[in-house]
Amino acid sequence: QQQVKQSPQSLIVQKGGISIINCAYENTAFDYFPWYQQFPGKGPALLIAIRPDVSEKKEGRFTISFNKSAKQFSLHIMDSQPGDSATYFCAASMSYSGAGSYQLTFGKGTKLSVIP
Amino acid sequence: DAGVTQSPTHLIKTRGQQVTLRCSPKSGHDTVSWYQQALGQGPQFIFQYYEEEERQRGNFPDRFSGHQFPNYSSELNVNALLLGDSALYLCASSLRFQPQHFGDGTRLSIL
């Protein structure tokens, strides 16, 4: 059972354009939604994250929009640059009352190519 | 300040063998999580260690086991390797309930 569905699988955007990646989740207990960026040969790096008490969070050129009723969230990359070309993963987790930290459930990823 | 470091970077094994992967967490972090990333897929949670105990476990068979040492470093052991175990194995560290930071992984190939 795939708990986090991500689309599109791949995306080509011109330099300066807006890249939009969408995710949908099923488990209403999820309450932490991060986005990770992964370059070839590297591990995922945290870009931005949101909790369901806000509908939008912006950090620089990256914005997360969150729709709790639709159980959907999206990543917008404004003024996309060739250096943004990477694979992007959405993820979700739920608060864990025990010791330790959040267990992340990832989407399958979106390969973004930004062409000059 | 070193981030999460994993060793080795690449490893080739044959079916039926056993493998041990190692992870040193980011300085100040006390929790280590392990993920398996198959080619073209998102990472899948294997298990998490905190205070030297396995605290959470994903849907992986008990061929996958781990350990956390008093200095918070961790090992992932996989026994009776299968072709399907070929993947990138990622270690992530965090301070309790803080965002997870990933290492660059160990690429495991099974022949």
Question: What would you say about this model in short?
Answer:
The complex is a heterodimer of chains A (116) and B (111). Chain A has strands at 4-7, 10-14, 19-25, 33-38, 45-50, 56-59, 62-67, 72-77, 86-92, 105-106, 110-115.
Please render the helix and strand layout as text.
The complex is a heterodimer of chains A (116) and B (111).
Chain A (H helix, E strand, L loop, with lengths): L3 E4 L2 E5 L4 E7 L7 E6 L6 E6 L5 E4 L2 E6 L4 E6 L8 E7 L12 E2 L3 E6 L1
Parallel strand pairs in A: 2-11
Antiparallel strand pairs in A: 1-3, 3-8, 4-5, 4-9, 6-7, 7-8, 9-10, 9-11
Chain B lengths: L4 E3 L2 E4 L5 E6 L6 E7 L6 E7 L2 E5 L6 E5 L5 E5 L8 E8 L6 E2 L3 E5 L1
Parallel strand pairs in B: 2-11
Antiparallel strand pairs in B: 1-3, 3-8, 4-5, 4-9, 5-6, 7-8, 9-10, 9-11
Query: β content of chain A, as a range?
Result: over 45%
Shape of chain A: globular
Overall spatial form of chain B: globular
Please describe the biggest sheet of chain A, giving its number of strands, its sense, and whether it closes into a barrel: 6 strands, mixed
Instruction: State the oligomer.
Output: heterodimer
Ends apart, CA distance between termini of chain B: 37 Å
Structural class of chain A: mainly beta
**Biggest chain pair interface:** A-B, 26 and 32 residues
Q: Which radius of gyration of chain B do the C-alpha atoms yield?
A: 13 Å
